[in-house]
Amino acid sequence: MAIIELRNIYKKYGKTVAADIPQLEIKDKEFFGLLGPSGSGKTTTLRIIAGLETPDRGRVFIDGQDITDLPPEKRNLGMVFQSWALFPHLTAYENIAFGLRLRKLPEEEIRRRVRWAAEFLRIEELLNRYPHQMSGGQQQRVAVARAIVIQPRALLFDEPLSNLDAKLRERVRFELRKIQKELGITSVYVTHDQAEAFAICDRIAVMNEGRIHQIGTPEEIYNKPEDRFVASFIGITYFIVGKISEYVNKKEGVALITTEDGLDIQAYADPNKVSRGDSVHIVIRPDYISLAKPTDKVNVFKAKIERATYGGDSIDYEIKVGKWSLRFRTPATLKLPPRDEIKIKLDEKRLVVIP
Ligand code: ADP
């Protein structure tokens, strides 16, 4: 079992605040993602957990035990880096065995554990090969085997797939998640790639400039962004600006927003955060927009097609609704000519406003 907790963590490099995290709890067995643009403090946070970086302030706990002053090798955490950092002059077997030798385990025990890890990752036939005799994907597995073989309390991943080509990266995502769930081991995963974080992680912290902007499941992060940074960093996002005219249903948070150019749009607005008369941004994504059906009554608007782009399985349209540029998609079988005027529906169940 391993609950990882950060309390009042603060780390500065010169004038740059690399991490400023008042409170973070990563649950037992959870696959937890640190997601954000380059320089947002993900790696610093991970390295603080690993003990490779000392925070200026704050404490790190595992299962309630304060580990802030423990050196990395005493924390018993398995790490997989971007570069995998395999020793080029050692075989896969010796690479995997390395941490066990450091721990001075008996040879028999080392053999047993390396076998177990190799079997788990299905790399038994690679054990005698050197890193240069393996593909990127195979080296990556060896790196994961090396991390799990020490039976760590938790696993830490820092962009472990960025050296793989796009296709392999996608396949390995699912494998990593499967391995993590089978081992049931608390894991922290750093990435700047939203699709990767969504595919792999149970919960995600979205970071920028050293701070966590939002923590949630991929679905919560995507559909209920809490601020403008999260809304624009995740997915394809357009904003419509308006004022809250009234709450249509306050209990459910359905508000009517009147835009600067006089459109009335219904969207979800949290009554605890915004009230009547407040200026808000409505978050609109391509998948919140569809062609209006004759039976649709709410949030139906005229739109003009500005551009259509063929995307294989779908067509991507740039449209203008009032003065607002938006995008939406249709299946490739349905082709709407440019300059056509169409009627679209904005899904009021998914539109959400941020202050
Ligand atoms: P991320 O992993 O999200 O790309 P980092 O945690 O690596 O971000 O970096 C956060 C910020 O701290 C960045 O502005 C980076 O330039 C700075 N930083 C990180 N490590 C160092 C260091 N060793 N010395 C100086 N600045 C650093």
What is the gist of this entry?
The protein is an alpha+beta fold and 355 residues long.
Task: Supply the key terms.
355 residues, alpha+beta, 8 helices, binds adenosine-5'-diphosphate
Detailed description of the structure:
The chain is of the alpha+beta class and 355 residues long. The protein contains eight helices and 20 strands. It has helices spanning 42-50, 92-102, 107-120, 136-148, 166-183, 194-200, 218-223, 228-233, and strands at 4-13, 16-26, 31-35, 57-62, 65-66, 77-80, 154-158, 187-191, 203-208, 211-216, 238-249, 254-259, 264-268, 279-284, 289-291, 300-310, 314-321, 324-331, 341-346, 352-354. The two termini are 39 Å apart. The protein binds adenosine-5'-diphosphate (ADP). Adenosine-5'-diphosphate is lined by residues 13, 16, 18, 36, 38-44.
The whole-angstrom Rg is: 25 Å
Strand order of the biggest β-sheet: 6-7-8-3-9-10
Q: Could you state the order of secondary-structure elements as H and E? A: EEEHEEEHHHEHEHEEHHEEEEEEEEEE
Distance between the termini: 39 Å
Question: Which band does the percent of strand residues land in?
Answer: 35-45%
Helical percent range? 10-25%
